[in-house]
Amino acid sequence: MNRSPRLTRACAALLAVLASASCTDRSASSSPDAGDRPLGRGGPQPTLVVTAKPVKQSFGAEIEAVGTALARESVAITSKVSNTISAIRFTEGQQVRRGTVLVEFDRTQVAAELAEAEANLAESRNQFARGREVSTVQALSRAQLDQLETSVKTGEARVAAARARLDDTVIRAPFDGRTGFRKVSLGGLVNPGAVITTLDDSSVIKLEFSVPQAFLGELLVGLPVTAVTEGLPGRVFNGKVTTLDSRVDPVTRSIAVRAELPNPAGELRPGMFMNVRLQGREAPTLLVPEEALVPEQGKTYVYVVTAGKAARREVRTGGRRPGIVAVLSGLGETESVVTEGTQRLRDGAQVEESGSGPAADAGAGPGAGAAKGTPTGRP
């Protein structure tokens, strides 16, 4: 019976403590220092941002691609006729001049055919000369004289054909170059089309590579090219674009480009795989700091500050290099873009410029004056 008043007093004290704590929480939540109070008159305070203005400078894309080295001239040396090799006049890997004899075939039968054709031609000419003398006294008709003249012309044609076959028994180098492996042996029978050896002129290397059509406007004959290859570490080969293909590949949407690289020492070989860097032609372009870009779902945006508000705007970018990006469309030259604080912004948000960041400068840092890009990196 004595425990009941004590229990009642304990419960009353506990309820008093809980009521006091609840009042304290409500008082704290309604205090002017609460975190959810308005941060400014009529709404939240403007977001502090750093802005920069785009800079218009001469700017060209630096395109990277991979290509294949080709010889300036390249041919497989073959025979026109079936014949037996009587002499081989070259060694493998030899540098030869145009007109150098490479292979000789047996010419015995062809030489005999030429001698026979020349003898028949001589006889035809004698008969035609006698017929012309007789025709002056009307002893030979005009038709007979014409027939003799035809025999002379036929003989001349046969002699020319025999001489051509005789020339075919000697194979000469069609241009200056270096021979490849020998595919035949002395005394072997060679059929038409059989490869005897190869001949390559590598004094100038043709470098073929493909560039996406997005860079078509930046390609121009005469643009400088640099190329490197793993087989020759530390060596950089310089050249220039010589030809652009007349068509764009409908499957890859790329255009074939051909450049020429001087190769006087013969270090480059046809078939080598090379990494190519092409300097695109320069044009006045708007440049913005790379930090201003906000990529989202495959598109690129910037925040433009106008009258204290941030407006999100889609832009089309071009080439880039560390720190700067070329903007091709969607931005005016006099507009300011947010470079710091973009992660806290939304379209139409109130902003306050706490300062201006450094303007984009294509002339600063490595690779000045050129944008660095890859064939697949440009929208």
- Could you say which structural class the secondary elements and strand pairing correspond to? alpha+beta
Q: The biggest beta sheet, please?
A: 6 strands, mixed
- The CATH class of the largest domain is identified as Mainly Beta
Which strand-content bin applies to the residues? 35-45%
Terminal CA distance: 88 Å
Percentage of residues assigned to helices: 10-25%
User: What's the gyration radius in Å?
Assistant: 43 Å
The number of helical elements comes to 3
- Order of helix and strand elements from N to C terminus: HEEEEEHHEEEEEEEEEEEEEEEEE
Uncertain segments of ≥5 residues (pLDDT<50)? Answer: 21-40, 364-379
Strand tally is 22
Brief digest:
With 379 residues, this protein is of the alpha+beta class. The chain has helices at 3-29, 108-135, 142-167; strands at 47-52, 55-78, 83-88, 95-96, 101-105, 170-172, 177-179, 189-190, 195-212, 224-228, 237-248, 254-262, 273-279, 283-289, 294-296, 299-306, 309-314, 316-321, 324-329, 336-340, 351-356, 370-373. The strands form three sheets. Strands 1, 15, 16, 17, 20 and 21 form a six-stranded mixed beta sheet that branches.
